[in-house]
Design goal:
By secondary structure, this protein is an alpha/beta fold. It has five helices and 22 strands. The chain has a domain at 406-471. Helix 3 (402-417) packs parallel to helix 5 and helix 4 (421-440) crosses helix 5. It is elongated.
């Protein structure tokens, strides 16, 4: 009996709170009858903030109205309010101290207010418990350096799709920040002091800006960084020590820039890196040892670059990879990447590697290219298969080929028949004007001038033999 009476008394405050929330609900709004008092005023056609809200309000949604102005203490005193959303309005001016009286506010959403171009230094004063602030797509060109000085609890800052030309100095020294979203701005550089003091930063998004300069050791204080997006910028080169100290980095996106090579100094400390994007650059060369410390790498994106070959030494050891993306590169399918074909067949972690050259295999996928071998077991490039014989000698050294031996045989045959020099020259002229022109059109398929001359010599021999038979 005592337990029942106790439960009744404990439930009285809850019942009163729900009743009070509904009773004090502003016009044009809907108030929930749940334990937490939620005020829903979105899409209500409001042009200004309602004059009163229930004191017990836990969350207020004022999205998609036509509110233009926030006066000082615009919401009165709401000690229980945790979430306030003002996204998709027409707010153009916020009076300093507009959010006073919201001592417990943890999340403030003001995204998509395209007329907000300026914020006062004391706009967010007294919001000491604010954890999440959303100012995305507000047409901001800059924010005061000391605007967050009274937000010691701020962890997540959303400022993407504005007009910043530099990383806001306001975030420096905010040691509690863990997530910063600055994508789709006009930021041109990451200075050596842009990220100073962000010792707990885990996530930084700078994609789709205009970054063309990254200073040496720009990320030196971001020891806990795990996700870094630098893709779709104008980066042509990186300092040697760009990512030194980022020991916890798990994902790095450098895609969509103008990098021409991959240095073996960039990823020296990234032992925990799992995903690396280097796609959509102009990379034609990867230094040996560039990936040797990436022992946790699962996915590597090198597609859409200018790579023609990929030495095996670059990927030693290769067992660490889970996925390797190499499509949309002008691959030269010769013996230098025979190892890659074998790796594709054995591990099935790579696919779609169309050959651009040599011409004999152009258009084929690397998996369909057949690499022949000499008697000694050496790999033969597809282009070499079009030659009459294989010679192990380096280019420039004298070599006894079938062509040379055959030419010698023809010369002896002509001397034996006693044909005059005039007859020989006339015959060769005839063959050169008829056969050589016809065969020259086949040059793209691997025939060289030496092969054509060889065929011409062979036809000459047939011609002489037929004449000898006719005489007999």
């Amino acid at each position: 009996m005592f337990v029942i009476i106790l439960n009744v008394f404990l439930c009285i405050p809850r019942v009163y709170s729900v009743w009070a929330c509904v009773r004090s609900c502003p016009a044009s709004c809907v108030c929930t009858q749940e334990r937490s008092c939620s005020i829903l005023c979105d899409r209500a056609g409001l042009t200004q903030i309602p004059s009163e809200f229930p004191c017990e309000a836990y969350s207020i949604n004022l999205d998609k109205n036509s509110i233009r102005f926030l006066a000082e203490r615009a919401f009165g005193t709401l000690p229980s309010l945790r979430t306030l959303s003002l996204s998709h309005n027409n707010i153009s001016f916020i009076t300093p101290g507009a959010f006073k009286g919201l001592a417990s506010l943890a999340e403030l959403r003001m995204a998509h207010n395209e007329y907000i171009r300026y914020l006062h230094t004391r706009t967010f004063t007294s919001l000491k418990r604010l954890v999440r602030l959303d100012l995305a797509d507000c047409n901001l060109f800059n924010i005061p350096d000391r605007i967050f000085i009274e937000l010691p609890s701020l962890r997540e800052l959303f400022c993407f799709q504005n007009n910043f030309r530099r990383i806001p100095g306001a975030i420096r020294g905010m040691e509690n920040l863990t997530h910063v979203y600055l994508e789709k701005n006009r930021i041109e550089a990451i200075a050596y002091n842009s990220l100073l003091g962000l010792t707990r930063l885990k996530y930084l998004n700078l994609q789709d800006n205009r970054i063309n300069v990254i200073h040496d050791r720009s990320f030196q204080d971001c020891k806990k960084m795990e996700y870094l997006y630098l893709n779709d910028n104008f980066i042509t080169e990186l300092p040697e020590n760009s990512f030194d100290g980022l020991l916890r980095l798990k994902m790095l996106n450098l895609g969509g820039n103008s990098l021409r090579n991959v240095s073996n100094t960039w990823f020296r400390d990234q032992f925990e890196l799992e995903v690396l994007y280097l796609d959509r650059n102009r990379i034609s060369y990867i230094e040996e040892g560039a990936f040797e410390n990436l022992t946790s790498l699962v996915s590597l994106h090198l597609n859409s670059n200018n790579l023609t070959t990929l030495p095996f030494s670059v990927f030693q050891p290769v067992y660490f990879l889970g996925r390797l993306y190499l499509f949309r590169n002008p691959w030269e399918c010769d013996c230098r990447i025979e190892w890659l074909k074998e790796w594709m067949e054995n591990y099935r972690l790579v696919r779609d590697i169309p050959c651009a050259s040599p011409s004999s295999v152009a258009g084929l996928d690397l998996t369909d290219v057949v690499f022949e071998r000499t008697l000694d077991g050496f790999c033969l490039d597809p282009e070499e298969l079009n030659l009459t014989t294989y010679s192990p000698f380096p280019t420039g050294e004298p070599q006894s080929t079938t062509e040379n031996r055959f030419n010698s045989l023809i010369s002896k045959f002509l001397l034996q028949k006693g044909l005059s020099e005039e007859v020989v020259n006339t015959t060769e002229s005839f063959i050169n004007t008829t056969l050589f022109d016809g065969l020259s059109n086949q040059a793209p398929f691997g025939l060289r001038e030496s092969n054509i001359k060889l065929l011409c010599s062979f036809n000459l021999w047939l011609f002489i033999t037929s004449q000898a038979v006719a005489v007999k």
